[in-house]
Each structure stands twice: as C-alpha cells, then as structure tokens.
Write a structure and sequence with these properties.
The protein has seven helices and twelve strands. The protein is an alpha+beta fold. α3 runs parallel beside α4. The protein starts with a strand and ends in a 12-residue tail after the last strand. This is Exodeoxyribonuclease III. It comes from Caballeronia novacaledonica.
Length: about 270
C-alpha cells in the first residue's frame, strides 16, 4: 500500500497537476494540505472521476486538508484537534481507510517569530502531540502524514544560514517534533534514508529548486506495528519540476499491507 502526503498549495489552480500525479503514481491513500478552498469549492467530481473517494475540511483562501482513497471511501473519525475546538483554522482531518487510521495535518508555519503566530504554532503542536500520544497508545495502526512545518535537524535543510530566524528551525519547534518521535513514532523517510539529505520543499525564491536547495518539512509518521511493515519511501520530485508547481513535492511510503508494489527510492 502506498500512502502519500502532498501540500498542493491551492487545489483549484493545481487540480490538473494533482490528477496527473494520481494517474502516474497511483497512491492508495493521499493526504493533501493547503487546499485554499472552501468545502463547496473542493473539486470532488474531478477526484471521484480519477477513482478516489475523498473527505475534506476546507477554508476560504487559506489552510484546508483532505484525505483521498483509491477505489474506496474514507470514513471520517475527526475534524480538528480534540481540546482545540476554538481553533478557526482547517488544519486536521482523520479517517479510517483500508484498515488504517490516517491523520492528515497542516501544522502552523509560525512566522514571524517571536509573536502570536509562533505562539499559535506551539500551542497547536502541543495539542497535536497530546492527540498523537492517545492514538499511539491505542494500539491501532496509525499514519500521521502532512506538512509539519518543522525542519527536524540541520541534516534536513540545504543550509541553515538564511533560515536561522525562521519558525521552522527554532529550538521550540524542533523540540516539539522530537517529543512527538519520543512517543514511539517512526519517521518513515528518515528511517529509509538515515544518512542522506532528502528534501520535500523548495521555495520559489533564489533558484532554490534549480540548485536543489531544499528543506524536509513533509513527514509521514508510523505507529509501532506499521513501522515493522515499512517497505520503502521517497519523494516524487518530478512533480516539483512541472510548470506552475506547488513548492512541495509529494512524499510517500509503501507498507506491506496487501497491495504489492515495486520497491523504489527517492526520485
């Protein structure tokens, strides 16, 4: 089974790119972030015609998350984080798909920092970690996939020099991610490539895509039992090289859960 996460950075202007990727790579489960569309604006018909059932949690102009399932209908278990019901941002959705519980998240960016946006990032992270612990302790097979807006270590960025003041690299952000992993989750991409620089995001400035000056901020975390079934992981970098692309590339794992797939590394 192939499970992917992709910050689409606007699903309406990039629906053709999304459909092209779905057809070419055929992931079984997809977590999307930054829909930048209301629930009514979500292109459900186009996605259904591509063979995917979908659940989504939209928002006008900002944020928004969705879970797609190939030849299946994901079953909603949660919209938003427990204990954070007053959050006005659409950043988390959770569903049962193919015997798994899948959490799709778009963690706050937090810039500029210090300030209220960074405080919100840390508060959201705290609530997310609490919910993640409950999921991990439940013993269910769980995947937590999305744009975490955290560069875990200096090995996950081309160079820290221009990013030292950015919220993605702050000690508090990294500590929250480390606390999450300490619960027992496996960072699938880093597990697969322990000694390589693997990037999932290249911003639009200073030719960062052309020079492979990237960051790893899109992560797929696996519960204990699923970590044992990890087969491969990678990044579909070709998507980032397409015209008018998102600044993220789809990031994925394959698990030995029934649907046989050819092993592959990072593209």
């Amino acid at each position: 089974m192939k499970i992917a996460t992709f910050n689409i950075n606007g699903i309406r202007p990039r629906i053709d790119a999304l459909l092209k990727w779905l057809e070419r790579e055929s992931p079984d489960i997809v977590c999307l972030q930054e829909l930048k569309a209301t629930d009514a604006q979500f292109p459900a018909d186009a996605i259904a015609n591509a063979g995917y059932g979908a659940l989504w949690h939209g928002q006008q102009s900002w944020n928004g998350v969705a879970i797609l399932a190939k030849d299946a209908e994901p079953v909603l278990s949660r919209r938003g984080l427990p204990g954070f019901e007053d959050d006005t941002h659409s950043r988390y959705i959770e569903a049962a798909v193919g015997g798994l519980l899948v959490g799709c998240l778009y963690l706050p960016n937090g810039n500029p920092q210090p300030g209220p946006k960074f405080d919100y990032k840390l508060a959201w992270f705290e609530r997310f970690n609490a919910h993640a612990k409950a999921l991990f302790d439940s013993g269910h097979p769980v995947v937590l996939a999305g744009d975490y807006n955290v560069v875990p270590t200096d090995e996950d960025i081309y160079n820290t020099r221009s990013w030292l003041k950015d919220a993605l690299l702050q000690p508090e952000s990294r500590a929250a991610y480390a606390d999450l992993l300490a619960q027992g989750w496996t960072d699938a991409l880093r597990k697969t490539f322990p000694d390589e620089r693997i990037y999932t995001f290249w911003d639009y400035f200073r030719n960062h895509w052309q020079t492979n000056s990237g960051l790893r901020i899109d992560h797929l975390l696996l519960s204990k039992d699923l970590a044992k079934k990890l087969e491969s992981a990678g990044v579909d970098k070709w998507v980032r090289g397409e015209p008018h692309a998102s600044d993220h590339a789809p990031t994925w794992v394959t698990l030995k859960l029934g649907r046989t797939r050819k092993k592959a590394g990072a593209a």
